[in-house]
Write a structure and sequence with these properties.
This protein has helices at residues 7-20, 36-67, 84-103, 111-115, 122-143, 147-165, 171-204, 212-215, 224-242, 250-257, 260-288, 292-314, 319-340, 342-374, 385-388, 390-403, 410-424, 428-453, 508-519, 524-537, and strands at 74-75, 80-81, 473-476, 485-488. With 541 residues, the protein is mainly alpha-helical. Strands 1-2 form a two-stranded antiparallel ribbon. A two-stranded antiparallel ribbon has the order 3-4.
């Protein structure tokens, strides 16, 4: 069973290499060489489907590990280890990755594809390889027992996602990528310092190790003062990658500028894995110094994230940035749930990770199709989707209902469970504040969704020619004052946006993802058992 742990990173490596391999030479003017076109088509298919294939392997491996009932599979000492929590996280990474990469497939009718025959372009190969690197790094991060390896895997995503954020080119994408690199590197450097201090604490205890199972066992006489500083730094550093306030400022720019599937991966996978690292550090701190310090940090960050997201969602004009702020909100809910602790709240946190990842990946894909169809991300310029583009409006409304925690979706059960657990834990004032801020978020998202989906089928005359394009976009101060935002200006563009089929794509992954969020909250066996076992790994404090 231990060898199964090698499958995700090996699959990601091989798929990444295959996706990045140069395409076969195109047929010359003298005529096609035998076998050239089939090889080119195979190369293109490999590049195009590499992310889907790796995600499917991660999902299958995670499910197999979840079904395993016996000794915890390990490989290479403390290098790879898959307890119930790791298996669940690997399943989440695979499921969200499959949703984003599968639903994000575009028809092969783009001008670039036509110009290069059936072979993949250099840009497409680089994009596919980086997605494989991202998925492989995430798989290692959640299946390693070594906090140092976890840090390296999370840091590796900074490199991959920076290039993915800037994949489309343009000043705004490059600015967002650079901002992400700078702030992400600062955060991950702080997390490295915390990890080094944990190692120093174990060294002073006579057993130098970064094995999570050893550090959380309580058998090592770790220095409480050193662990207190280490835990504070590690939580602060990983909270930056998780997009928790006040270290969230990179997230709206990066999520709004990245290609839609990448935005879904960052929101549903990257943030979740960074929060997984926080949960691991929290468990160590709870054993050595008690839950007080990390509980206070997470409660403060959680409430701050909810407040920031609620205030800015109400004033948001860009639907992709709106989804990004929604991610900050949900990270805030997770932080509050982790601060509450206990079996119910921790199981609810894990359920929330699943529901948020699937719903947000679906919504980012829909947002990408809306951009391709409408030519803009400005909410005020999208009207009447339900009348003229039901294929976009229906998944948008259903996804928003899932994201807002309406029943029967999973986020309804997780948010109710977190609030009730917090109330019983004596944090009634905090839970009242959480509910109030969630209502603010609901008001903002419902208003924006209704504005885009309801109304007449035709756009208002003064907005019919607004085209979201680098050439017609100006930058102005953001409503939150934290970052500039782009505002599409009116341009004399009589022709409709040329989507080239990018406004359409596979529907089945969206149905499966949103359908899963609708039923998973009712499934006590095996989902409830899995959540209980995974929460137990973190301890019950």
């Amino acid at each position: 069973m231990g060898l199964l742990l090698l499958l995700p990173p090996v699959a990601a490596l091989l798929a990444g290499l295959a996706a990045a391999a140069p395409r076969p030479a195109v047929p010359s003017l003298a005529g096609p060489r035998p076998g050239a076109r089939p090889l080119a088509a195979l190369s293109a298919a490999t590049t195009r489907l590499s992310g889907v294939l790796v995600s499917a392997i991660l999902l299958a491996t995670g499910v197999a590990l979840l079904r395993h009932r016996g000794a915890v599979p390990t490989l290479g000492g403390d290098l790879l280890r898959a307890d119930a929590l790791s298996a669940l996280m690997l399943t989440v990474v695979g499921a969200v990755g499959l949703t984003a990469t599968w639903a994000g497939l575009e028809p092969r009718t783009s001008p670039a594809a036509s110009a290069h025959g059936s072979g993949a372009t250099r840009s497409e190969r680089r994009y596919a390889a980086l997605v494989c690197v991202f998925l492989g790094a995430m798989a290692i991060a959640v299946t390693t027992d070594n906090l140092g390896v976890l840090w390296v895997a999370v840091e590796a995503t900074t490199i991959a996602t920076a290039f993915l954020v800037g994949h489309r080119g343009g000043a705004r994408s490059l600015e967002a990528a650079w901002k992400y690199v700078v702030l992400g590197s600062v955060g991950i450097a702080i997390a490295l310092l915390g990890t080094v201090l944990l190692y120093a604490a174990s060294r002073s205890a006579g057993e130098p190790t970064l094995s999570w199972t050893r550090l959380v066992s309580g058998e090592l006489p770790l220095d409480p003062a050193l662990v207190k500083v280490a835990a504070g730094l590690a939580v602060l550093g990983f909270a930056t990658k998780a997009g928790l306030a006040p270290m969230h400022s990179w997230l709206p720019d990066a999520h709004s500028q990245a290609p839609a599937p990448v935005s879904g991966l960052m929101s549903g996978v990257l943030l979740a894995v960074a929060f997984y690292a926080i949960l691991r550090v929290r468990a160590i701190a709870a054993v050595v110094i008690g839950p007080g310090l990390v509980r206070g940090l997470l409660l403060t960050a959680g409430l701050g994230s909810l407040a920031v997201a609620g205030a800015l969602i109400l004033r948001q004009r860009d639907h992709k940035r709106m989804l990004a702020y929604s991610s900050i909100e949900h990270m805030g809910v997770l932080a509050v749930g982790a601060a509450v602790g206990g079996p119910v709240a921790l199981a609810a946190v894990l359920l929330h990770l699943i529901g948020h990842g699937l719903a947000k990946a679906s919504l980012f894909v829909v947002a990408g199709r809306m951009l391709a169809s409408e030519g803009t991300t400005t909410i005020a310029e999208v009207r009447g989707l339900l009348s003229r583009r039901a294929d976009l409006a229906v998944p948008l409304v259903v996804g928003m209902a899932a994201l807002l925690g309406f029943p029967p979706f999973a986020l309804f059960f997780s948010e109710v469970a977190i609030v009730l657990a917090g109330w019983r834990a004596g944090l009634g004032w905090a839970m009242a504040l959480v509910v109030a801020l969630l209502l603010v978020v609901v008001a903002g998202l419902v208003r924006a969704t209704a504005a885009m989906t309801l109304g007449p089928a035709q756009r208002p005359p003064d907005q019919a020619h607004a085209v979201h394009d680098e050439r017609t976009t100006t930058t102005t101060s953001a409503p939150d004052g934290s970052a500039p935002v782009a505002v599409a200006t009116l341009a004399p563009a009589p022709a409709p946006p040329q989507a080239h089929g990018a406004d359409r794509g596979p529907v089945l992954p969206l149905v499966l993802a949103l359908g899963t969020t609708a039923v998973i909250g009712f499934v006590a066996t095996p989902v409830g058992d899995v959540l209980t076992r995974a929460a137990a790994v973190l301890g019950l404090s």
